[in-house]
Structure formats: C-alpha cells, structure tokens
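Work Package 4 report. The design task specified in the project plan requires that, given a folded chain encoded as structure tokens, an amino acid be chosen for each position. We show below one input record used in the internal validation round.
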C-alpha cells in the first residue's frame, strides 16, 4: 500500500506531497505539531493530544485550520488510507503561506499536514536492559511548553546522544536541574523511593505520556512528586526512566556512562510501563 499524506484539504501520494516554499513553517519554523500513537487501530489519548495542540496554537495565535471534529475525521482518514493499525500519526499546523516577512501575515489560512507511518514495537531489549542517557546544557527558549516545530536544540542534542552511543540526552538548566529529554520527559525514583518529575511549567513540554503515567500511578495509589531534580540527585537515584508517545516508559540505566543504582531497569519503571501497555490495550 503506498503512503498517503493529507496536505491542506487534499489526500496526496506521500512521495509527491509538499507545501509551498513560502510556508512559514518551512521559512520560520512558525508552527506546531503533535504525534499520536495508534495501537491496534485505536488512537491512544487522542483528546489530551488535541487539547495540547489547541494550547500550542493559542500560545502562538495561530487559528485552528478546522474544527476538532473535522480534524479527527482527517486523522482517521489518513490512518485508514495508509492501512495503519499500529503506528503513529504526525500532524503539523503552520501559520500558512505568505510573502516572507517576520510579522504575522493578514488573512492567511494556516497549513495542515497529516502523515502516518507504521511502527514496530519497542525492542524488548530496550525494556529489559534499559537505555543510556547523556546530559547536556538546555539551550532552548523559555516556552518549551509549546509543541513548536522549531526543534534545532532538540535535534542537536539527540545527535549528540546518538554519537555517544546513548538513547537520549537529558537537558540541564542553569541551576543544574534536569528539564527533560530532547523528545521525552525525565523521571527518577529517588533514594527515599519517591517518583520525581519536573512540574509542567514553561521549561518542559507537558508530555501526554507523562500525564498518562501520572493518571495511572494515581489510580494505583502510587504518589508522584512534581518538582525539579538535580543531576546529582539523578545520579544517586534508585531508578530513572523516560516517557514519550513513541517510547512509552523506558528504564534509564546509565547517566553519562555511570550506572543508575545496579545498572538494571527498576521495578517501578517496569510497573509503570506495564500499566501504560495495559491502558493502551484497553
Ligand atoms: C521535548 C519533548 N518532551 C517530552 C516529549 C514527550 O511528550 P509525549 O509524551 O506527549 O510524546 C516530547 C515528545 O515529542 C518532546 O518533544
């Protein structure tokens, strides 16, 4: 089955789909995006993704290109036309196409692109053995709560991690506190056994998986402390893990080449992953 993309009202062959060269997403990274997981034909946590999309659009004063109901229809249609039962939907909205000028253009319709791709399940090895992270300075802007398509610091950080043989880079603010990963949220289980993650303010993206973990943990009576934690605290933690739509929950077993506790995935990390997997299968 050949891939199909939705671009501004049309379903096009993926290989030929494109936007105009003066699309502000292309020229200024003036846009936002979302990634939604599809599991056995069902969208996981679609509403929180669409809520966050709305918040990102509002923060940048970009009008929604269509109603929520119409967008949901397009998402389903892209998934259907691509025959995706397990995979991800990518949707991107930019301020639209206009003659290049920094200030907002007037009377311009936002651009909407939706693609879908099949994904393989996370390799069991990553879950069973855990993954490594490096740490790098957080050089991003001060509104990381907006899911902007402007991702240069994130891609540079991810490449640094890859070059170091790690899965992710955790970013540190000027106080040496962990903000988040380049495309994941960061968590630890500290010496006292408390699950700690940074509060969702403007320094991090409020991950939909982060919210799912909070919800599922609360239902199990597992407490979560939302406060910044330092690299020093992470290095001494009993467990560490990361969360995202594409990784779900993955145990972190090395930080900057040093093992976290005994260097094996922690019990709570694996329990939270299992809870997420169950929630997705429901
Ligand atoms: C910077 C950043 N933090 C966290 C996340 C995790 O968010 P979610 O769980 O919604 O995928 C992402 C996902 O792309 C991200 O880019």
């Amino acid at each position: 089955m050949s891939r199909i993309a939705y671009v501004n009202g049309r379903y096009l062959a993926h290989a030929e789909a494109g936007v105009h060269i003066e699309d502000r997403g292309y020229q200024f990274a003036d846009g936002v995006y979302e990634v939604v997981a599809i599991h056995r034909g069902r969208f996981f946590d679609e509403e929180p993704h669409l809520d966050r999309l709305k918040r990102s659009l509002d923060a940048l004063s970009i009008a929604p290109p269509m109603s929520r109901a119409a967008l949901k229809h397009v998402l389903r249609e892209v998934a259907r036309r691509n025959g995706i039962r397990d995979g991800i939907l990518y949707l991107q909205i930019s301020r639209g196409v206009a003659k290049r000028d920094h200030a907002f253009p007037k009377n311009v319709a936002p651009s909407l692109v939706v693609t879908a791709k099949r994904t393989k399940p996370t390799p069991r090895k990553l879950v069973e053995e855990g993954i490594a992270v490096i740490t790098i300075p957080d050089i991003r802007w001060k509104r990381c709560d907006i899911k902007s398509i402007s991702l240069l610091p994130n891609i540079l950080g991810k490449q640094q991690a890859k070059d170091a043989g790690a899965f992710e880079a955790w970013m540190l603010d000027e106080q040496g506190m962990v903000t988040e990963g380049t495309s994941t949220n960061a968590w630890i289980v500290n010496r006292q056994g408390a699950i700690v993650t940074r509060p969702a303010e403007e320094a991090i993206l409020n991950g939909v998986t982060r919210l799912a973990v909070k919800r599922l943990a609360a239902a199990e009576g597992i407490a979560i402390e939302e406060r910044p934690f330092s690299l020093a605290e992470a290095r001494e933690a009993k467990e560490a893990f990361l969360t995202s739509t594409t990784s779900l929950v993955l145990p972190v077993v090395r930080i900057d080449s040093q093992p976290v506790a005994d260097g094996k995935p922690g019990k709570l990390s694996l329990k939270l992953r299992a809870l997420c997997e169950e929630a997705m299968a429901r």
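The longest strand covers residues 31-39. Validation will be extended to a larger panel in the next phase.
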